[in-house]
């Protein structure tokens, strides 16, 4: 399947939304660059989990990570970590699927928030691509993959914070951290808001501060590359700075 890449500046084109809605994108060559990317198979997958029941959002996240892992991340990283590639795929090849699944994108604001959202940690495709990479790199047995995708979803706030820091973007660190969270029952603690600490900001969570502390100590403490037991000690130390069971 050939994906024609959009030209630079496509987000600033005021006609893009209307032409997408009216199925006229492919009729206007001015939208595209001269670059094409070939991908053997590009199946549909959920791209947005911002609304709905928790069980539905979880199912959609798991489905997206699995499909991306099986069909997209074998492309070079400069392709599947390129927002222009994903926006081009959605605009040129997924119109009918997207309008059927997310009818709210017939509204311009929702279109830009769901289909053309900036490709960073707030974008669900970005989250799922990185999750798919980590799961794939970990070399897990197939029956274990869904377990870890579930753990990522259960700890999405911490995962979102991890992917902001390049040093933590490695499979070993993430899998070890997820194991620690599960073994120590940290999930609910990590999600809790830190109270009575105005110096930390309005919406600080324990898990975020743990990652913050690990990042602050790097490279003196090489937490991204530690074995699980050593990392567990660092996590406990970081958590103890903010959290007390008393």
Notable features of this structure?
mainly alpha, two-stranded antiparallel sheet, 2 strands, 53% helix
Description:
By secondary structure, this protein is mainly alpha-helical. The protein has a domain of 91 residues. It is 53% helix and 5% strand. It is built from 13 helices and two strands; from the N terminus they run βαβαααααααααααα. A two-stranded antiparallel sheet has the order 1-2. The protein is elongated, with a radius of gyration of 20 Å. It starts with a strand and ends in a 6-residue tail after the last helix. The model has no long low-confidence stretch (mean pLDDT 94).
Helix and strand topology:
Blueprint: E1 2-6, H1 16-21, E2 32-38, H2 54-71, H3 77-80, H4 83-93, H5 95-101, H6 108-114, H7 124-137, H8 142-154, H9 156-162, H10 171-183, H11 187-191, H12 206-217, H13 228-240
Antiparallel strand pairs: 1-2
Helix pairs in contact: 2-7, 2-8, 7-8, 7-10, 12-13
């Amino acid at each position: 399947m050939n994906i024609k890449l959009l030209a630079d500046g496509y987000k600033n084109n005021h006609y893009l939304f209307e032409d997408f809605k009216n199925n006229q994108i492919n009729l206007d060559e001015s939208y595209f660059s001269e670059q094409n990317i070939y991908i053997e198979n590009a199946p549909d997958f959920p791209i947005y989990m911002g609304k709905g029941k928790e069980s539905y959002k979880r199912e959609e996240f798991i489905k997206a990570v699995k499909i991306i892992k099986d069909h997209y991340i074998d492309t070079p990283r400069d392709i599947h970590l390129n927002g222009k590639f994903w926006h081009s795929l959605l605009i040129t090849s997924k119109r009918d699927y997207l309008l059927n699944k997310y009818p709210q994108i017939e509204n311009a604001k929702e279109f830009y928030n769901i289909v053309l959202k900036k490709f960073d940690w707030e974008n669900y495709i970005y989250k799922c691509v990185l999750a798919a990479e980590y799961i794939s790199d970990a070399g897990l047995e197939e029956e274990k993959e869904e377990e870890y995708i579930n753990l990522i979803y259960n700890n999405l706030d911490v995962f979102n914070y991890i992917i902001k820091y390049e040093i933590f973007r490695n499979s070993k660190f993430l899998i070890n951290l997820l194991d620690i969270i599960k073994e120590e029952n940290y999930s609910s603690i990590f999600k809790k808001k830190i109270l009575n600490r105005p110096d930390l900001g309005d919406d600080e969570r324990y898990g975020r501060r743990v990652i913050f502390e690990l990042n602050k100590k790097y490279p003196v403490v090489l937490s991204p590359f530690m074995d699980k037991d050593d990392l567990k000690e660092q996590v406990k130390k970081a958590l103890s700075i903010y959290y007390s069971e008393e």
